[in-house]
Amino acid sequence: MLPLAPAPRILIVDDDPNLLVILAEQLRADGYEVQTARDGEEALRRLAIAWPDLLVIDMLMPRMDGLTLAREVKARADLPIIVLSAIDTADSKADLLEEVAEDYVTKPYHYPELRARITRVLRRVGDRVPRQRLTLGPNLALELHRREAIVAGRPVSLTPTESRLLYALAANLGQTVATETLLARGWADTDDADPSYVWVTMRRLRQKVEVDPARPAHLLTVRGIGYRLVGAPDTRPA
Questions:
Q1: Nearest Cα residue to 172 out of 102, 236, 220
Q2: SS3 call for 41
Q3: Which of 1, 2, 77, 96 is the most buried (most CB within 10 A)?
């Protein structure tokens, strides 16, 4: 029997303690793993430990507002965000959906609608964020929530773009991810991006994460299609 997939993880960020309790209970009853934070700073502390699969963020919060938090999150990783806010102007919704959010739900929310939107966003995004450290072999482990790789025991920093590409590959471990998909993950806001961006970044990533970049053991090319990230048992050359 195949092991059950882990429950999708959702981080709710809102300064209303009653909403946090009620919404967390509703989502847990539907099988989600839920954490909560009362402001952006607390949310960032939680993200430094582990990534969720999706964030639900209020816009109006003390210390760090939701837009600032969403921008911080998107700078670190391509995590899907649903805005849950009392702000109901069309321009605000359009701006947020254009810049940082996958969807927008207005307060007071109707839970079946919010649940349907969460389901739709998770299905559309597809990628599941690896839980904390992902060990691929004796010489490579990824800590993508820290934007870091551990190569032969040595920590190596990753750029935001490198981290986004590895995130997409790690979420589909052992499967081929098309170059076009990686291009969309890494350069979604770049109008003139072309596949060479992916090729150059993957070459740079190999220099960082492979013990022998000329004979990669983990970051493999599938010629004419894209790339695969594999664990130590699969050492076929690119």
A1: 220
A2: helix
A3: 96
Q: Tokens representing 211? A: 């013990």
The closest of 203, 137, 121 to 173, measured between CA atoms, is 137
Backbone angles phi, psi at 106, to 5 degrees: -90, 140
Nearest by Cα to 104 from 92, 112, 35: 92
Q: If we measure between CA atoms, which residue out of 141, 167, 166 comes closest to residue 52?
A: 167
What type of residue is 91?
A: D
The Cα–Cα gap between 22 and 8 comes to 18
pLDDT one-digit tens code per residue, 8-32: 899 999 999 999 999 999 999 999 9
Give the global pTM.
0.61
Burial label, 60 (beta-carbon count in 10 A; 0-12, 13-18, 19+): middle
Domains of the chain: 9-125 (3.40.50.2300), 134-229 (1.10.10.10)
- Lookup: tokens for 227: 């790339």
Q: At what angle do helices 179-186 and 195-209 cross, to 10 degrees?
A: 90
Q: Which string of DSSP letters, residue by residue, matches 47-111?
A: HHH---SEEEE-S--SSS-HHHHHHHHHHH----EEEEES---HHHHHHHHHHT-SEEEESSP-H
pLDDT at 3: 41
Phi, psi for residue 40 in degrees, rounded to 5 = -65, -35
How far apart, in Å, are the Cα atoms of 57 and each of 85, 96, 106? 8, 11, 11
